[in-house]
Amino acid sequence: MTTASPSVRTRFAPSPTGFIHLGNIRSALYPWAFARANQGVFVLRIEDTDLERSSQAAVDVIIEGMKWLGLDHDEGPFYQMQRMERYKEVLAQLEAAGHVYPCYMSVAELDALRERQMAAKEKPRYDGTWRPAPGKTLPPVPEGVQPVLRFKNPQEGSVVWEDKVKGRIEISNDELDDLVIARPDGTPTYNFCVVVDDIDMAITHVIRGDDHVNNTPRQINIFRALGQEPPVYAHLPTVLNEQGEKMSKRNGAKPVTQYRDEGYLPDAMVNYLARLGWSHGDDEIFSREQFLGWFNLDHLGRSAAQFDEAKLRWVNAQHLKALDDATLAGLVLPFAAKLGLSGLDDGRLPAICGLFKDRCDTLVALADWVKVFYAEEVSPQADELAKHVTDAVRPALKALDARLQVCAWDKASISAAIKETLTEFGLKMPHLAMPVRVLTAGTAHTPSVDAVLELLGREKISLRLRNA
Ligand code: GLU
After folding, report:
1. Quick one: which atom of ligand 1 is closest to the CA of 198?
2. Which of 204, 212, 215 to mutate to test the pocket of ligand 1 (most atoms within 8 A of CB)?
3. What pTM was computed for the model?
4. What residue's CA is closest to ligand 1, atom 6?
5. Which residues approach ligand 1 with their CB closer than 6 A?
6. 199 Cα to the center of ligand 1, angstroms
7. Which atom belonging to ligand 1 lies closest to the Cα atom of 11?
8. Ligand 1 center to residue 47 CA distance, Å?
9. Cα(198)–Cα(66) distance, rounded to whole angstroms?
10. What pLDDT does 190 receive?
11. How far is the CA of 22 from the centre of ligand 1 (A)?
């Protein structure tokens, strides 16, 4: 039995030149989702040919970030620097087929050309001086100069593609000059490597940022020169930051992994990023499975999407409260452990999560609540203490403490102990509940006091009430 080759093969091809941020990783989410939604293959390719700006640390953040978000790849990571021999091999093929020619124009000559063109209000472009043509005499080859290799871009016609986001795009070939595809030392340039990779990796759909849209007609011409049909293209609009600028590390974008450390859930992040440039009706909150069930390239947005941290927090809060308590307990555990808390395996965590999950928008916020239950002490604000823990209520607090030492330990009995104390001292619920909250939980803003006390346990309550 033979298995049919998968019809969809996508890739994410980041350059590890900075720490990958949310704007970048969205360019991984869509090709990943498209591959998964179509039982296809998702390839990870690291475009590390910019030796000065690439770093292993940046590669690590890409891989860690994708792993955290569950954007698993089926093939790779392939590193372009490890494929140099292959590029040179294909370059030789292209040369043998007459699609490439050496160009000896010096940098000074190129600069002068550019200046002349600018002065004449023309678009700066290589003028084809060294492009061979029947009957054309080329300038004499200068001595001791290593040429670059240029690609013979077609001079007639135009390049057309149906972009899945932008619609039909047509670029006339006379707008494209002959691209340098190998440097004087023989190393291939970016646009050429991308085409060789996309061919070798049998990529069917290129889904990438629209900062590459100008490269596409050049890449398509190289595909054709190599006798290959180009893939389908979808160029995603930019992601803007909250100030409306293109999201970038330079203007404060955080590395993806920082959101993990700040307590965001991977499924919430996938949900949020998915909506940043794609929609499924009015659906705002959805699971990973729903997203994969719905995703296609037909509903990608055409205009730039703007990052909104408040919305991300809201999406996270929705996912957080939808989790069952035991799962949430497992997720909050490392965050609580990071706060130096111990005894976290005593079985109380799921119930604590259940009690607080609808008040928290991140795991970090939830861990702060966990701390109330495991830390030795809490530190109420002085003004809250002054406001709620008054001389009038101190005797009642003492009496409640005594009752709680002997009553049965369940919510109903705790509630009864509170009520008896209220009756004894002629107080109303808030008069006693507020100081109890402030003293035992460190804040007046908690869920129902009997539920909090039940989870705190007799000893901690007693210890903390005695600070009254
Ligand atoms: N390496 C390019 C980048 O990080 C992506 C190239 C591509 O997707 O074709 O912007």
Report:
1. 9
2. 212
3. 0.93
4. 13
5. 13-15, 47, 194, 208-209, 212
6. 15
7. 8
8. 7
9. 21
10. 94
11. 15
Hey, which CATH number is domain 376-468, 3.20.20.30, 1.10.455.10, 1.10.10.350, 3.40.50.300?
Answer: 1.10.10.350
113-124: average pLDDT: 94
Which tokens hold the place of 443? 């804040």
Task: Report the topology of domain 92-182.
Answer: Glutamyl-tRNA Synthetase; domain 3 (3.90.800)
pLDDT of residue 2 exceeding 50, the answer is: no
pLDDT in tens, 378-437: 999 999 999 999 999 999 999 999 999 999 999 999 999 999 999 999 999 999 999 999
- The dotted CATH code for 1-77+189-322 is 3.40.50.620
Cα(226) to ligand 1 centroid in Å equals 21
Question: Measured in angstroms, how far is the CA atom of residue 20 from the centroid of ligand 1?
Answer: 12
From ligand 1's centre to the CA of 212, what distance in Å?
7
Mean per-residue pLDDT of the chain: 96
Q: What is the average per-residue pLDDT within 117-138? A: 95
What confidence score (pLDDT) does residue 249 get? 80
Pocket test of ligand 1: the residue of 55, 189, 194, 219 to mutate, having most ligand atoms within 8 Å of its CB, is 194
Mutate to test the pocket of ligand 1, among 43, 47, 199 (most ligand atoms within 8 A of CB): 47
Distance 187 CA to ligand 1 centre (A): 18
Are 92-182 and 376-468 in the same CATH fold? no
What are the extents of the domains in the chain? 1-77+189-322, 92-182, 331-374, 376-468
